[in-house]
Amino acid sequence: MALPPLRFCFDYLSPYAYLAWTRMPAIAARHGRVLEPVPVLLAGVLNATGNIGPAEVPAKRGYIFKHTFRIAHELGVPFGPPPSHPFVPLLSLRVTAAVDDLEARARLVSALYAEAWGGGKGVESPEQVTVALRAAGLDAPALLEAAGRQDIKDRLRRNTEEAVASGAFGVPTVFVGDELFFGVDSLGHLERFLEGKDPLKGVDLERWRSLPATASRR
């Protein structure tokens, strides 16, 4: 029986998803898993779950840059802010959704992230996305055209809806079957899960789910 793939749900808008992506190919290889990058629209996830993005909280905005810069330094990966943030990621997400081959899609994800958060010039316009498509060795005109088709727009929407239905509330989210891991800081837990060393084995999770609430915030 084939092992479940690592379904990596992401949006180019998120620097945390970029940082997690830099580790995902090696994690998948170490554990003999197929890596499936799944583009989702973070705004759609947030709207569906009643959540807000970290950069939408003014007190967090400056901290996030410092935090992600420190993580990038720790991981030894290039890091630089895009030309603007938040930006509109729809074109880059749809182009990615149009690539069926998983290896080619992974190359494109790496190339687009390099342009978004690795010191590149952004991924918002057709010209910017073309740079990444060419770097990934893909047919830029064909994929830019595909990104405008309704079936590709629907594919991105469906990816987003399926992620939310499976429990996603933000990005990056990694699914291993029904198990969910959120955030770049959860990747160590992901590896322990893949090794069969998850400390949650035997824990009564239903007790946690059913705890009564005695306080609420208006």
UniProtKB/TrEMBL annotation:
Coiled coil: none
SUPFAM superfamilies, per database record: Thioredoxin-like
EC numbers for this chain: 5.99.1.4
Catalytic reaction equation(s): 2-hydroxychromene-2-carboxylate = (3E)-4-(2-hydroxyphenyl)-2-oxobut-3-enoate
One Pfam family this sequence matches: DSBA
Keywords: Isomerase
Family of the protein in this entry: Belongs to the GST superfamily. NadH family.
This protein's name: 2-hydroxychromene-2-carboxylate isomerase
Chain ranges of the DSBA-like thioredoxin domain: 8-194
Molecular function terms from GO: isomerase activity
Organism: Myxococcus fulvus
